[in-house]
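Title: Request for sanity check on Cytochrome P450 prediction

Description:
We are preparing a figure and want to confirm that the structure record we downloaded matches what your pipeline produces today. Could someone re-run it with the sequence below and paste the raw structure tokens into this thread? We only need the token string, no images.
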Amino acid sequence: MTDQADPFASLARTGAEPPPGCPAHAGAVSMTGAEYPQTPSKLYRMLRRDHGPVAPVLLDGGIPAWLVLGYTEVTYVTSHDELFARDSRRWNQWENIPQDWPLLPFVGYQPSVLFTEGDEHRRRAGVITDALEGVDQFELSNECLLIADELIARFAGSGQAELMADYVHVLLMRTVVQMCGMPSTGDDTLRFVDDLRISLDAGEGEDPVAAYGRVGERLRQLVKEKRAVPGPDVTSRMLMHPAGLTDEEVVQDLISVIAAAQQPTANWICNTLRLLLTDERFAVNVSGGRLSVGEALNEVLWLDTPTQNFIGRWAVRDVQLGGRQIKAGDCLVLGLAAANTDPQIWPEGHVGAENAAHLSFSNGEHRCPYPAPLLADVMARTAVETLLERLPDLVLAVEPEELVWRPSIWMRGLMELPVQFTPVVQ
């Protein structure tokens, strides 16, 4: 097959040469090509064909890692913390990582729940779980509904909207920061959410490391405010928890909570709207069709999950995985999207959305803490259903193939989702 026939063939061995002693071999594939984010399933198929369920890849700057593609293998890695741990200080590549490496916000060790292990992780995750359990799901749905109605009213009379900017991101931003005790509006909140976006998914010319620092400073201010005057919010419940987290521990864990809640859920909503507006299976009964919306939300988690890949795990010792020899300190990237479409679990080639055994919220002790997936579902379902109920003849304003995915190997979301509809007189 030529490079012209297979756009991903040209990705092999691109970028800087991997450092000496890395796990990459002659077949290693760079994950930084421009083609990859638009049709990642092609890359997954190529990697499975050439390498099986565990593939050698190159991250930014030619840094080597393993991409775990198989459903069974991802489940095994996430279920065996004693072999594949979260403390990134184990990485055998730190001497090759520059201070401005764009993935530092993901892998640079922080004293947060993301990098803790064993009893300490269970303690920190327990605080988050208890704080999130204090969120009333009916109140959360009602808050989402009120914000959604307000946002829809702003563009309902125009007959057109760009849903990513005008609706989805604003809705999730306001809901999540309000849940954590921050003001839901204002320039300060807008700057905070934009910095969060940059730290997770930086565009060209943006500095994710600096943005991550600003996110931390704003949350330190919030924690100081809530320590003095607690309220009925997630931050206050974390501060008052009997586990006795320090202010800095709460700051670090809040970053994890907000980052996991805001952008991934926003992309989940938009990916679901795209499915509903482009797939004829949902065309007949979309408006007000709660069953159809629920099916679409679940199908997106299988086929277009917002968190495509997650970095990662670090091998505690030399170990075999998927026929590969993993060295102690090697980095493993969890290919959640690839695992969800693994032909070993869908042998007929058809990925069904009939169950919720996907890995979109990861797996094992480090999966999204309960009840975070339930709260995300409340926000996503309310956002989609409210929009379709208020604007029942909503259609895409462009051809489906004109939609452009964000240039990210980590997050799966559209750059824009332009729609049109019959103007609604308020």
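Thanks, this matches our download. The two ends are 57 Å apart (CA to CA).
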